[in-house]
Specification:
Blueprint lengths: L2 H25 L1 H11 L30 H35 L6 H20 L14 H24 L3 H17 L13 H29 L5
Helix pairs in contact: 1-3, 1-7, 3-7, 4-5, 4-7, 5-6
Length: 235
């Protein structure tokens, strides 16, 4: 990986991380803070509020716990932006390596094509695993973490290989094998609980899950476009 590719991947990834962080604060932060109030029992179903120092906790916009104040909120927000930048920088390096591999074989990757590659990354990392394991709010009761991780990584690997077979070497056989690989983890099935329960309202969980997927969709599209443009050897 040359310097242009490396710097392009990192710049594109960090820029996308900032974009994803902004979307997080716009669409996800309030839901997470409200879910934490349910987790701590300061809010319960049917809107009853216990007597604690939470100000306007009933609408989910206050998240003051004891001595936690503006400083802790600022630290939390800065860490959110930092980790978003690091995560998408890592994804950007993976996309840049794929673009370099494809370009070395004579295929051009424009910014518009990069959007499609980015959406393929979204399908691998976010959409396919979420079909079995939806994004969870704080306090949500979940399956065994080891089983979740095994299924999650297996699903990502199967989806990535399946898409690669279908689009990099298209033929009747590879398309059929690709579809089979993509479907295999879902045929096996994600780990599930024997019974379902939780502290946050299901409506809140549903809103959170759909917004997480939406944020990831637009972030991956931007990442693909930026990394393709910034690593293009012809610019």
């Amino acid at each position: 990986m040359n310097i242009k590719t490396l710097t392009g991947a990192l710049i594109g990834g960090c820029a996308t991380g900032i974009f994803a962080g902004v979307l997080h604060f716009a669409f996800l932060q309030d839901i997470i803070l409200q879910a934490e109030l349910y987790e701590s029992r300061d809010l319960i179903h049917f809107g009853q509020v216990e007597a604690h120092d939470h100000g306007d906790a009933a609408d989910g916009h206050s998240h003051s716990h004891g001595d936690a104040g503006e400083g802790s909120d600022l630290n939390r927000n800065l860490l959110t932006m930092l980790f978003a930048g690091l995560i998408y920088a890592g994804y950007g390096l993976i996309l840049a390596a794929i673009f370099q591999f494809v370009r070395a074989r004579g295929h051009n990757v424009t910014a518009m094509q990069g959007v499609l590659w980015g959406l393929a990354g979204f399908a691998v990392v976010q959409m396919a695993p979420s079909m079995g394991l939806a994004p969870n709010l704080p306090g949500t009761i979940a399956e065994d973490i080891n089983m979740r991780q095994y299924w999650w990584f297996g699903t990502m690997a199967a989806t990535a290989i399946g898409l690669g077979l279908m689009f990099l070497r298209p033929s009747a056989l590879t398309i059929a094998v690709g579809f089979a690989l993509i479907a295999l983890p879902h045929i096996i099935g994600a780990p599930v609980l024997d019974e379902f329960y939780g502290v946050a309202p299901p409506e809140l969980s549903a809103t959170f899950a759909t917004r997480v997927i939406g944020v990831a969709f637009f972030s991956w599209a931007l990442l693909g476009a930026l990394v393709a443009r910034l690593t293009d050897p012809n610019t």
